[in-house]
Design a protein that fits this description.
By secondary structure, the chain is α/β, with parallel strands linked by helices. Helices cover 40% and strands 16% of the residues. The two termini are 36 Å apart. Bound molecules: ligand C6P.
Length: 400
């Protein structure tokens, strides 16, 4: 559905219709988002929160409306809890620095899982190095879901924070974050959710989940690149120090003492991406207009169709087969290198991702050089999946 709103989907690649199945890496942008950003640059571009002049006030209004839009979209109590960042990676780095300064000391523990993206591993490793804290890892079961018994055992008096992906960018599996949050909270432990792969596919409500922090990227939900969101409960954001200094994040500056701005501005040093936030607002409007429940149901069906069609091809191995997934399926072909298969798919116009998907610990665990990963968005169709399957059969024939 809605493929007519995405001009890029009419492009040809190597003489074939583009079949874009790399949406977990980034989604394409609908015309309304592109037009809105052009309109912003051509009619009201001016720096925000700074000028008394008309354009600056219009731009400021749009940026703050976008913040409210994001708050409503993820069910935050207040727009003060929405910090604009450069993306999920930036959100998690900012949180790791800030929370580390305020709440982590030598010997404390941070818990992540085995299926995390590097963005939800490395910032915590860096924090642990800085503070002499310890990183603990939730293992996976045979079926590649989180070992919840092991998770419970990892929560101790030393645990300061759990940071976990809602949806794995490699396996597509949906982790039981609500249950994990309740278990952590029962011991007074904070939880951060990496929602980069869930917000685009599932109705995520931060108050329902009761997460303390949550991150996602605009570019994975039909919005522009270079913009992301860090949600934090007001009571925690209030207690954390800013991660970066500069304009915008201050109240008063003097060489004797600088005081910081109120929430969320104390976390937004420098000129924010106010054109990007307008694009994200339009992207979220677009998703809402299409119907979030309708999209979730459609993509869930498409993902099952994708997995079943791939599984019907001899020698195709599906990872976390049969698990409920959100838009992502990883697979390999026995005895074939994923790069070779991916290259032959590309030559037939089919875009999938190959490699370790920035989740090397998980890929090492699977004992493979990488996987092929197909990921769907609201504009993909069963015809796209059929095209992938036909191209894959041809690639296997050529390589065998
Ligand atoms: N995953 C993928 O192809 P950024 O790059 O900051 O927008 O998002 C980082 C990130 C964090 N967590 C998860 C679960 C992710 O999937 C990603 C981005 C892309 O899988 C690019 S590596």
């Amino acid at each position: 559905m809605y493929e007519q709103d995405f001009d890029i989907l009419r492009e040809q690649v190597h003489g074939h219709r583009l079949v874009y199945l790399d949406n977990a890496a980034t989604t394409q942008k609908p015309k309304v988002v592109l037009d809105a950003m052009t309109e912003a640059y051509t009619t009201w571009n001016a720096n925000i929160h700074r000028g008394v002049h008309h354009l600056s006030q219009v731009a400021t209004q749009h940026h703050e409306q976008a913040r409210q839009r994001v708050a409503d979209f993820i069910g935050a109590k207040s727009s003060k809890e929405i910090v604009f960042t450069k993306g999920t990676t930036d959100s998690i780095n900012m949180l790791a620095f800030s929370l580390g300064e305020a709440m982590v000391k030598e010997g404390d523990e941070i818990v992540v899982s085995y299926m995390e993206h590097h963005s939800n591993i490395v910032p915590w490793q860096m924090l642990c190095d800085r503070k002499k804290a310890v990183l603990k890892v939730i293992p996976l079961r045979e079926d590649l879901t989180l070992d919840m018994e092991a998770y419970k055992a990892l929560l101790t008096d030393k645990t300061r924070l759990v940071s976990v992906a809602h949806v794995s960018n490699v396996l597509g599996v949906i982790n039981p974050v609500k249950e994990m949050i309740a278990l952590a909270h029962a011991r007074g432990i904070l939880v951060a959710v990496d929602a980069a792969q869930s917000v685009p596919h599932l109705r995520v409500d931060v108050q329902d989940l009761d997460c303390d922090f949550l991150s996602f990227s605009a570019h994975k939900i039909y919005g522009p690149t270079g913009l992301g969101v860090l949600y934090g409960k007001e009571e925690w954001l209030d207690q954390l120090p800013p991660a970066e200094g500069g304009g915008e994040m201050i109240e008063h500056v003097s060489f004797d003492k600088t005081t910081y701005n109120t929430l969320p501005y104390k976390f937004e040093a420098g000129t924010p991406d106010f054109i990007g936030s307008f694009g994200l607002q339009k992207a979220l409007d677009y998703v809402e207009m299409a119907g979030r429940d309708k999209i979730e149901k459609y993509e869930a069906e498409l993902t099952v169709y994708l997995e079943n069609q791939l599984a019907s091809i001899p020698n195709v191995i599906i990872y976390a087969a049969g698990q409920r997934k959100a838009g992502v399926v990883s697979f390999n072909v026995e005895h074939l290198h994923p790069f070779d298969v991916g290259t032959l798919l590309d030559q037939q116009g089919v875009a999938v991702r190959t490699g370790h998907h920035c989740a090397e610990p998980l890929i090492d665990k699977l004992q493979v050089p990488g996987t092929l990963r197909a990921s769907v968005a609201m504009y993909n169709t069963k015809e796209d999946i059929d095209a992938l399957v036909a191209a894959l059969k041809k690639a296997i024939m050529m390589l065998s």
